[in-house]
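Support reply, case 0932

Customer input (verbatim):
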Amino acid sequence: MTISETTKLVSPKQLAERSLIWLGAITTGGVVTNLFAPQILVGLIGRSLAMTAW
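Our regenerated output:
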């Protein structure tokens, strides 16, 4: 691999695909975090306050 190959400009199509991949990855991470983090946090907070489950 030469220097000219590594510094070659990215085509607009590749840039658009890369942007969509990043958007999908960030969206998936946000959804997973919002689904599981509240359950984990409620359990930890409840346990630390000595609250029992209904």
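We compared this against your earlier run and they match. Two observations from our side: The radius of gyration is 22 Å. The chain is about 75% helix and 0% strand. Please reopen the case if you see a mismatch on your end.
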